[in-house]
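Inputs:
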Amino acid sequence: MTATAEKSAEAGAIPSMTVTLKILRFDPDGLDGREPGTEYWEEFQVEAHATDRVLDALHKIKWEQDGSLAFRRSCAHGVCGSDAMRINARNRLACKTLLKDLNPAKPIMVEPIKGLPVEKDLIVDMEPFFASYREIMPFLMTTGTAPERERLQSPEDRARFDDTTKCIMCAACTTSCPVFWTDGQYFGPQAIVGAHRFIFDSRDEGEWDRLEILNDKAGVWKCRTAFNCTEACPRGIEVTKAISEVKHALNTGEI
Amino acid sequence: MATEHEFDVVIVGAGGAGMRAALESSQRAKTAVITKLYPTRSHTGAAQGGMAAALSNVEDDNAEWHTFDTVKGGDYLVDQDAAEILCKEAVDAVLDLEKMGLPFNRTPEGKVDQRRFGGHTRNHGEAAVRRACYAADRTGHMILQTLYQQCIKQEVEFFNEFYVLDLILDGDPQAAGEDGEVAAAGVVAYSLATGEVHTFRAKSVIFATGGAGKVFKTTSNAHTLTGDGMGIALRAGLPLEDMEFFQFHPTGLAGLGILLSEAARGEGGILRNSEGERFMERYAPTIKDLAPRDMVARAMANEVREGRGCGPNKDYVLLDLTHLEPKHIDEKLPDITEFARTYLGVEPYTEPVPVFPTAHYAMGGIPTNVQGEVLRDNTHVVKGLYAAGECACVSVHGANRLGTNSLLDINVFGRRAGIAAAEYANATETTPELPADASAGVEQSVARLRDTVGGSGTERVAQIRKELQETMDRNVQVFRTAESLAEARDLVIELQKRYENIAIHDRGTRFNTDLLEAIELGFLLELSEVVIAGADGRKESRGGHYREDFPTRDDENYMQHTMAYKRADGTVDLSWKPVVITKYQPMERKY
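Outputs:
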């Protein structure tokens, strides 16, 4: 967001500093004498403030130094899920990571999220990720005629699945999972989170259809409880816990 | 992938309005949704506080009170027939979403819970009423997710990361006159992934492309909200209505513009100046901090102007939540308090949060009737062309939108547009033929921009955009005068000339976001000119448009909508359209 500079100037006290970003780039077109598909590291220096987001630094590069640097972003405050990337070897949203939370004395390493095909620079093909989400039937399933007014749900029942409704589908969890990196068939944590949101919704009647899908060889049993997903989630969702609740439902037949 | 497509209905945009339309349209006709983002990235997901509907789940309420509040909140520039529909259909709109699975917060009895919001009152202004249905402070996120989930269920066909750049019409809207006919024929889109240009023939086209907040520097809007749909309509010869009315949301995080929901005040938050005073008591004695947004934003800006701002530069006020229980904050306002912690390092449990108005919402847009059909002048529609959501102007928001009425708008009028578009398509025998050179315009402009790489152009997209946004913030924000508007217009005209001389960096075909930003800037430059023209022509103060040189509302001369047209020679013309009044005569607006 362009307003950052103003904020920093106003605050006055926030010191400006030179930050180095090392970005893993991927050139699909083969420009400037490169082969199409060339992968290479490129280093940029930008003047920034400690309170700037990594996204602000990336924008400074794109807007002032190299317009060809490609990354996705939209809302710039952590709700749209566009800008998940690997920053200093951890999956994070570039718009929710402030420079002061990294060590700005060292180069900040920025790479695309892992396990999905890279399209250009920090942009990956999200289609396999969304395909897994579609697989788990992520919509309310009910039988019988709908009531005239709303379906009733107690605040306690509503709270039961609150955590997994927060998911913004940024893919930070799925692409931090070592099982997903090596096994493209695995649905990945996000799809299980998406299923959890409905399985534990008292209004839903499709829970066993979804659990059956997740019981599949590409499903929850692939999870090795590495906890990478929970650490990676920029929304603070307890992903591993959600997965274990799904496993527990499958083991016990109880929801 | 083939680059020529044919559908009954093509929907441009996959936010709330676009997907709500798609759910109706795809049940009735062959439908495609074309979106420059993935659907779940749309800015509907950033909406926080709630969706208004007189459900009467927690206290007595009715659609008539809601209609009155909407009309009064909009400073009587609202078309009252449209507002009646909005408020009457609100109840079903909420219940529909609940049945689709939306996880609303619940009352102890298990009903959809409701809370207070600015300008929503009991019995024509007696006191604040609980009308906003909500899911914590992420209601928009839940709506976007729920609609996307239903689209998956219905197997709606999406073209993700396709950027629509042209609307093909059969007939010239500015030459058709009284008896002529103009109809939609399709759209032309640029595929971000491949750089190819695609054509979409369609019987009906729905624009649901969202807002244009990026004409301003301090904004709650996403980087991608560049008014593309409005700009395309304008270039196609269609008018834009009431573009001078832009809403500045009172509580943006100071310096950043990130939205902090009005729900913070609905849940009991208080605005204070440097003296610790609850200053809204002076500006709106009855409902205080829950006055409509235009009044609160102006009050805040005024406090700062008169030296009662906070911080080292006295340039913001404080949103105080410290008297609320942390548990209550966590339950009702978890996201926005996290924004304060993440971006300003402020702990809202114990410290007040620095806030200042941020450009938030375009009340104006592509004019439509209540079926969502796009108007090409005050009375004639373009057949088969529809618009809904923020890019459209029905007009239910008039001069100032009430909080929670936009999530309502996208659902009510998205649904209506979806049904109308599909019904029109089904009643239309053949899909219009596109002219052989339908894609030529887009191909040329893409090629022209790509050819600037390494060329003689000396101007940078980011620099021009920065200057544009700075002048809009300085001159066209909460306070406006003839002089400030003239200054802004002169600079915008100069920037438009400089834009002709830009050079971009990326000559690649795949994911050329450099090219995309250059195209977006073109729309921002044109729309800014329209905003300024409307603001200059409206020599009164009403709702979100405040002229210091004309500080009062002038119903005799300006109780009408502006209609801005771009002429072939590039000039912007303003004309006027009457407001539809059904039962509420304008009164002085006091809260």
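Remarks. The first strand of chain A starts at residue 16 and ends at 27. The two ends of chain A are 44 Å apart (CA to CA).
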